[in-house]
Model the fold of this input.
Amino acid sequence: VARPIKLSHYVLQSQNPHRLASWYAALLDADIVFKSDFLTLLTYDDEHHRIAFAALPPATGGQIAKRENGKPGLSHVAFGFGSLSELLTCFENAKGRGDAPVVSLHHGPTISLYYKDPDGNNVETFIECLPNAKAAMDYMLSPAFQENPVGMPFDADAALMKLRSGALAADIMAFDRTKKIDVATLGRQTLEALG
Ligand SMILES: [Fe+2]
Done:
């Protein structure tokens, strides 16, 4: 057995790699550590690069300049934040730049806000809501998760207001399992939004 020790980085091909790099740098409060015509590298921690942007030749004729919905492939990449406050600061800043999430959900194990980058790729930002990975695994194996693996809509604006008025993050993050949710509809809307 020889498993990788980590997931390090991914690379997006784009006809606007610099625009994309700036967008990700702003969303993730990350640094551009290398920039050229062909390749731009970005990181936000001790990894030398986390996301790279590779230039595609300019679009001509029938070439696709943006990710198309409904195609097989990568749906999204998820970035974990350290606290509700940080997740919502990221949200507030993104909104201030005109980038509201396309989907906001409390999944149960995580609160997840999904954005679309300028090329149409989905990006998830999230926080863990359960105390540790074991608790999250247990929850995913529970009947509650089998019944509703999607979760429920999460109002990030309301959460931010509550947090700023002094509510406890733990209270805002509580998952109300008694709430009636049309799981099939919410699941379909989510898949469509992130298609
Ligand atoms: Fe995800």
The chain has a mean pLDDT of 94. The pocket of fe (ii) ion is lined by residues 76, 78, 124 (CB under 6 Å).
